[in-house]
Amino acid sequence: MSDESPWLVVGLGNPGREYAGNRHNVGFMVADLLASRLGAKLGRAKRAQAEAAEGRMAGRSGQHGGGPKLVLVKPMTFMNLSGAPVVSLAQFFKVPVAHVIAVHDELDVPFGQVRVKRGGGEGGHNGLRSMSKSLASKDYARVRFGIGRPPGRQDPADYVLSDFASAERKELDFLVDRAADVVEAVVLEGVEWAQNKYHGI
């Protein structure tokens, strides 16, 4: 694997205006923010059922556009079929699994926290399950945006497809911004470095 290989950053979510504010769609929110940071615009991908954008990050020296290449992806297949467009674009851009980052909502992390890891299980997340199956590997990085467990006896499936509560929305922009920072840290410095920097906050 060459360090010159691009990075595929996959924001997981469901297409359609009715899902836009759902907890399950924070991956889309982070992908949109990363695109704006790159000065890129997500548009329909030619080779996959997805929206995609390309751009270069600033390098370690802060030089604009001199850093690693990112391919940002929002699968437009609905969550449980996310893997097919991901693997198509990974193959086209020659992205190794080690350079794939999934950004997703995480029930097992409290709201207000962003965590990162490489590999592991899918925790019942259909988007991750589809990615792991299509990539034939679980060894991609995951930026896990905490949404916490549903209150009372609410079904988790209903909870993830509901919008953030009004109190949560006050913090949402800040947390999406932090998740985008975590993605950039993984690309520039690695998963372990990002864990050390962000897991205490």
Automatic annotation (TrEMBL):
Protein keywords: Cytoplasm, Hydrolase, RNA-binding, tRNA-binding
Record-linked InterPro entries: Pept_tRNA_hydro, Pept_tRNA_hydro_CS, Pept_tRNA_hydro_sf
Q: What is its main location?
A: cytoplasm
Q: What enzyme class is recorded for this protein? A: hydrolase
Per its database record, what is this protein's job?
Hydrolyzes ribosome-free peptidyl-tRNAs (with 1 or more amino acids incorporated), which drop off the ribosome during protein synthesis, or as a result of ribosome stalling.
Active site positions, chain numbering = H24 (proton acceptor)
The record describes its quaternary structure and partners as: Monomer.
UniProt key word RNA-binding: yes
Q: Which GO terms describe its biological process?
A: protein quality control for misfolded or incompletely synthesized proteins; rescue of stalled ribosome
The record's family statement is: Belongs to the PTH family.
Reactions catalysed according to its record: an N-acyl-L-alpha-aminoacyl-tRNA + H2O = an N-acyl-L-amino acid + a tRNA + H(+)
Q: Where is this site: Stabilizes the basic form of H active site to accept a proton?
A: D105
Q: What would be one Gene Ontology cellular-component term for the protein?
A: cytoplasm
Gene3D superfamilies listed in its UniProt record: Peptidyl-tRNA hydrolase
Give the protein name, as stated in the record: Peptidyl-tRNA hydrolase
What's one GO MF term for it? tRNA binding
Annotated site (Discriminates between blocked and unblocked aminoacyl-tRNA), which positions?
Answer: N14
Where does this one sit in the cell?
A: Cytoplasm
Give the EC number(s) under which this enzyme is classified.
3.1.1.29
Which NCBIfam families did the record assign?
pth (TIGR00447)
UniProt: tRNA binding residues = Y19, F78, N80, N126
Answer whether the UniProt record assigns the keyword Signal to this protein.
no
Its domain of life? Bacteria
